[in-house]
Structure formats: structure tokens, C-alpha cells
Inverse folding.
């Protein structure tokens, strides 16, 4: 976490906010890529979308501001990671539901 | 079910469609009222929203078209019911997640 990429306290995150954030095919797919719990570089090819970088950035920001992900800055590398344990604590079962086909 | 109020086959319902439908405070509250699995009259006072009838009708329609509810017409009474068993079969755990505070 950094000042540049603030995240809400999980205790303050509302379910409807999370639902709104994941109610989008691209963001749902991002969550599925992140489901392994590991940080994933924002610039990697693995996202598999034919999206402009700016569009992808918008989706990353939406997920972060909704409380679903955090951004990890290491030097010039920016990675995104699911706040999986926190999400599971706040909304038990939610992550598993999102990973369903 | 009636021709007037068609519902999609649950097998065709996509998770992102369901998420989009419930990613709204009013519709999420409607789902919670319906969580008992019983039909609830559309015109009842129990919904607890200060909404115009037309606005409430729009939310009912959105839920039905997303596959979440069915409308039961009995004479002049229209009731709405959660497709709970079907939803549970298609997206295990989803309904429980939606009922969390």
C-alpha cells in the first residue's frame, strides 16, 4: 500500500460497492486472474484483454477503490493483488462465488 | 410464470448479469426481503422504500430479467418470488453472500 494508491478499510467496505465493482466482465476476469492471491504486474500480458492501457488502469482503480485489491509499488514495478483474506473475513463466500464460471 | 413475465432459463444466466442486477441498494434490499423464498405481493408495504410505484416496478423487472426472481400472477394479485433453489444450483453460495449485512 502507498499514499499514491490508498485503499479503504475493509470494515468500511459495503457489499453493494463490491458488487458494483465486480459487475463487469473485464473486472470479474481480473479478479479471477488475481484469485491465486499473488501480486500480478499491471503491465503483464496475462490479463488477456484487448484494452488500452488507460482502460485497464481505470478497471484496476475501480477495483482498488471498492476495497477488492491493493496496489504494490516496488521501484518502477506496479503490481495488483487481491485482498483475499480480508475480503473473505468481511464477506465469507464472496470470492468463491466470483470464481465460478 | 406467465408469458407476460418471462424469465430466462437459469442455465443461460451469466454471473455478471446477476451481479449487475444486485449491485444496487434497492434491489439488494428486495432480494433480502425475498430471501424467505415465499411470494411477496408487489404492492405490499413491506418493501420499505419511499419509491414511486413505477420505480419499484423497474427494479422488479430488472431482477426478473436477470434471472433472480419470478412473477406469480394470481387473479389481480402480482407477487414476486426469489428463484432461490435454481440460483443456488447455478451459483452455489451466492444467495448467502447477498444476505450478509
Amino acid at each position: 500500500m502507498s499514499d499514491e494508491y490508498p485503499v479503504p478499510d475493509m470494515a468500511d467496505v459495503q457489499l453493494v460497492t463490491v458488487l458494483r465493482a465486480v459487475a463487469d466482465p473485464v473486472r470479474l476476469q481480473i479478479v479471477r486472474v488475481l484469485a491465486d492471491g499473488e501480486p500480478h504486474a499491471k503491465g503483464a500480458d496475462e490479463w488477456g484483454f484487448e484494452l488500452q492501457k488507460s482502460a485497464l488502469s481505470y478497471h484496476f482503480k475501480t477495483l482498488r477503490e471498492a476495497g477488492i485489491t491493493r496496489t504494490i509499488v516496488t521501484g518502477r514495478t506496479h503490481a495488483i493483488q487481491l485482498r483475499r483474506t480480508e475480503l473473505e473475513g468481511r464477506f465469507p463466500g464472496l470470492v468463491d462465488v466470483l470464481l465460478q464460471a
